[in-house]
Amino acid sequence: MNHFAGFTVPVHGGHHAMLRFAEDGKAEPVMGKHGKPMVFSTELEAQKAVTIHLLAYINGHMRRDGDIAGRAKEEANRIFRKGKMIPVERIVT
Fold first, then answer.
1. Do 3 and 20 meet the contact criterion of CB atoms below 8 Å apart?
2. How far is residue 82's CA from residue 18's CA, in Å, rounded to a whole number?
3. CA atoms of 1 and 84, how far apart (whole Å)
4. Cβ atoms within 10 A of the Cβ of 21, count?
5. Distance (Å, rounded) from C-alpha 40 to C-alpha 50?
6. Per residue, what are the HEC states of 10-69?
7. What is the residue-level pLDDT of the chain in tens, covering all 93 positions?
8. Neighbours of 37 (CB within 10 A)
9. 64: Cβ–Cβ under 8 A, 6 or more apart, which residues?
10. Whether the model pTM is above 0.90
11. Which of 25, 45, 49, 78 allows an S-S link to 17, with CB 3.0 to 4.6 Å?
């Protein structure tokens, strides 16, 4: 299921910023130091953290089947074209 989600959850002492990425089965809280979930004092602070982390992930290296997008195309071009440009001709009928 290719689904991204971000939301907040009220907890004792504040709110958790929760993120779910396409490759994960469930949402996880944003982690702080020592691998502990960060607790934000207000829901707005938690929502800002959701936005920052979700955008950072999406604007980072997107992966396709465990490969960074674009790398597979470069490798295929080297193998099949052997480093040469192949001219493409368009036939109009």
1. yes
2. 46
3. 39
4. 17
5. 11
6. EECCEEEEEEECCCCCCCEECECHHHCECCECCHHHHHHHHHHHHHHHHCCCCEECCEEC
7. 568 899 999 999 999 999 998 887 889 999 998 999 999 999 999 999 999 999 888 887 666 555 665 666 676 766 666 666 666 677 776
8. 14
9. 72
10. no
11. 49
- DSSP-derived letter for residue 6 is E
Residue 12 one-letter amino acid: H
Q: Is 48 exposed, middle or buried (0-12, 13-18, 19+ CB in 10 A)?
A: middle
Looking at residue 42, what is its pLDDT?
95
Q: Which residue has the tokens 């790398």?
A: 71
